[in-house]
Write a structure and sequence with these properties.
alpha+beta, about 20% helix
């Protein structure tokens, strides 16, 4: 566990510093021991307060599309408490909300 100290310390700092923000999914790994990944699912609205809290500039946010245009993705990175924090949000594309077939 020692190799995860940096990312876990950053997670603790995030939790202590921003307790009112929406809870993200959290991922840490010994493959990238100084990385803390925070992901938000089905709610782009939760991305903005996290972006502001982490001090990420608007121009540093990247927009992408997955699943043949059915999923929109926002991604940004910041250094926080010694770790590289990767913030990602996923949302169903408005055109994909119609309930069509996954086939």
């Amino acid at each position: 566990m020692e190799e995860l100290t940096v990312s876990l310390r950053a997670l603790h700092a995030v939790a202590a510093g921003f307790p009112a923000l929406p809870a993200p999914s959290v991922h840490v790994s010994p493959i990238f021991p100084k990385r803390l990944e925070l992901s938000l699912h089905d709610d782009f609205g939760a991305f903005e307060p996290w972006r502001l809290a982490l001090g990420i500039a608007c121009e540093d946010v990247q927009f992408g599309v997955q699943r043949g245009g059915r999923t929109f993705v926002l991604e940004a990175r910041a250094d926080f408490a010694g770790a590289s924090v990767h913030l990602t949000a996923f949302s169903v594309a408005p055109d994909a909300r119609g309930g069509g077939s996954d086939a």
